[in-house]
């Protein structure tokens, strides 16, 4: 639960901002040591290596434990890691080939691992109460039957998910397929995942977590490094942007406001490329963009800006340094992947998100998460329309909703059709204060209990989560 101080902070920050998107989602003054921007090279997380491969399955074995990471140059800070890496190694998977990951919990506290965006059986989904206790292990099996997409794995034990993800328990999972590869998009070293997040670094250079402490998280990390630089060739790059922050939103653009092409969203490729000069990225969301650096002369330094930041340390995300010429046979075709036909909806549901000031908790439909309670009974194979409402206007607080198991299509926000990366398959959607969003979703393939929750993790950790049971 939130204490009185946290609620006062939320009211003060939220009450000062009524517009959507929030232009000042983080308030307060500077904290922690000043670090020169663009002093460290971008870290590309290594590819995870299977310990065994069968005819059908790649097997991974991952330890979950505390370690030290050099977030600031020359300063070690305690973090939580998958196999000692911050962030975790990137798992590369192929559609139609199973991945089995055994996690061994060497931490003192319990944990859960959720593959965000994956279409998996309930036993491998990472339900918040399906704990891996200290000293235990669990194997998750991912069939990879869905289309290629930028997924990610992260901690999900209820009440501790916000802190464990914040302290480092997150990594990227790239699902590939042959249809995507045939398009000729940039690949290999020119296909780069970028995990963005904000942290609070204290005066000693250590990572600090405080529940509801978003005001102090004023240092931006990309792949675990503070505002790095990335040396690129003068050619096209496919950049996969992940928002791994607990609460911070980003509106990303290049310093010269030049355009690029959006090609993918949470659940994979868009129907067609969308030319844009900026895009919003909220917690849990992924956006894929192709940026062509061939238009810049060698020697150009180009900053990636966050227009939702309120000080320099939250506005300058990273810098691209064009250092060499290159040949380039990649392309962005006019057609990427048609949207899936989700069928005709037969059920309509209403979901309300709200901060309950009396109970000091974020709630869904007036209720705090209870794993013994089923909030939505869903028939397998049905298509539904969900209308999601954000009732928080005083204080004015944004929320976003993530549904486990499924990808959905966003129909409209406040009655207006969406565009950009939201024209593709989604699993996480943002709802403005006082506003509403309608989504169309089909529940196929798996039965069992799954959760849906706000992916502003400091909200879900207090109870902003519901449970749906899917049956034949």
Walk me through what this model shows.
The protein is mainly beta and 472 residues long. The protein has 3 domains: 4-26 and 339-471, Sandwich (Immunoglobulin-like); 52-177, Cupredoxins -  blue copper proteins (Immunoglobulin-like, Sandwich), CATH 2.60.40.420; 188-325, Cupredoxins -  blue copper proteins (Immunoglobulin-like, Sandwich), CATH 2.60.40.420. It is 6% helix and 44% strand. It has helices at 4-15, 161-166, 178-181, 312-315, 457-460; strands at 52-53, 57-72, 75-82, 88-94, 98-105, 113-116, 137-142, 149-155, 170-176, 191-201, 207-208, 219-222, 225-226, 229-234, 236-243, 250-254, 260-265, 268-276, 278-281, 286-292, 301-306, 316-325, 347-356, 361-364, 376-379, 383-390, 399-403, 408-413, 428-431, 436-442, 448-454, 465-471. Strands 10, 11, 12, 13, 15, 17, 18 and 20 form an 8-stranded mixed sheet that branches. Strands 1, 2, 3, 5 and 7 form a 5-stranded mixed sheet that branches.
Summarize the structure.
Helices cover 6% and strands 44% of the residues. It has 472 residues and is mainly β.
State Rg. Answer: 21 Å
Here the CATH topology of the largest domain equals Immunoglobulin-like
Quickly give the CATH architecture of the largest domain. Sandwich
Query: Mean pLDDT, as a whole number?
Result: 93
Q: Please give the CATH class of the largest domain.
A: Mainly Beta
**Any idea what the CATH superfamily of the largest domain is called?**
Cupredoxins -  blue copper proteins
Total strands: the figure is: 32
Query: What percentage of amino acids are in beta strands?
Result: 35-45%
Number of domains: 3
Q: Helical content, roughly?
A: under 10%
Largest sheet: 8 strands, mixed
Number of helices: 5
Based on helices, strands and strand pairing, what is the structural class? Answer: mainly beta
Low-confidence region ranges: 8-30
Shape: globular
Distance between the termini: 36 Å
């Amino acid at each position: 639960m939130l204490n009185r101080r946290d609620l006062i902070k939320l009211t003060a920050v939220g009450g000062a901002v009524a517009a959507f998107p929030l232009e000042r989602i983080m308030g307060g003054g500077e904290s922690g040591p000043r670090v020169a921007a663009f002093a460290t090279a971008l870290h590309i997380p290594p590819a995870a290596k299977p310990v065994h491969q069968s005819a059908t399955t790649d097997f991974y074995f991952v330890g979950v434990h505390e370690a030290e990471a050099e977030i600031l140059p020359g300063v070690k800070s305690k973090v939580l890691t998958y196999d000692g890496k911050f962030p975790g190694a990137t798992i590369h998977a192929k559609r139609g080939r199973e991945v089995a990951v055994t996690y061994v919990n060497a931490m003192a506290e319990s944990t859960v691992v959720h593959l965000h965006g994956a279409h998996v059986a309930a036993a491998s989904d990472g339900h918040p109460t399906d704990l891996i206790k200290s000293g235990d292990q669990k194997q998750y099996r991912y069939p990879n039957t869905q289309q290629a997409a930028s997924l990610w794995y992260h901690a999900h034990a209820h009440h501790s998910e916000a802190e464990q993800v914040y302290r480092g328990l997150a990594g990227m999972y790239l699902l590939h397929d042959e249809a995507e590869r045939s398009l000729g998009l940039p690949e290999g070293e020119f296909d780069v995942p970028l995990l963005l997040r904000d942290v609070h670094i204290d005066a000693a250079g250590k990572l600090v977590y405080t529940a509801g402490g978003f005001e102090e998280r004023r240092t931006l990390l990309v792949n675990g490094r503070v505002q790095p630089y990335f040396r690129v060739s003068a050619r096209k790059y496919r950049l996969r942007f992940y928002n791994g922050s607990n609460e911070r939103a980003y509106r990303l653009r290049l310093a010269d406001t030049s355009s690029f092409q959006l090609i993918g969203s949470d659940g994979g490729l868009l129907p067609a490329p969308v030319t844009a000069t900026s895009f919003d990225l909220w917690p849990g969301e992924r956006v894929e963009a192709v940026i062509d650096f061939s238009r810049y002369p060698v020697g150009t330094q180009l900053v990636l800006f966050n227009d939702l930041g309120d000080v320099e340390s939250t506005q300058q995300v990273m810098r691209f340094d064009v250092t060499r010429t290159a040949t380039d046979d990649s392309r962005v075709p006019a057609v990427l992947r048609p949207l899936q036909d989700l069928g005709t909806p037969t059920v309509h549901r209403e979901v309300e998100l709200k901060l309950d000031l009396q109970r000091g908790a974020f709630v869904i439909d007036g209720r705090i998460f209870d794993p013994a309670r089923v909030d939505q009974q869903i028939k397998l194979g049905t298509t539904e329309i969900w209308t999601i409402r954000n009732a928080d206007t005083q204080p004015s607080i944004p929320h976003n909703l993530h549904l486990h198991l499924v990808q959905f299509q966003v129909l409209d926000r406040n009655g207006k059709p969406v565009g950009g990366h939201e024209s593709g398959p989604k699993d996480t959607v943002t709802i403005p204060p006082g506003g509403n969003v309608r989504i169309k979703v089909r529940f196929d393939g798996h039965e069992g209990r799954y959760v849906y929750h706000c992916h502003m993790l400091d909200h879900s950790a207090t109870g902003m989560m519901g449970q749906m049971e899917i049956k034949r």
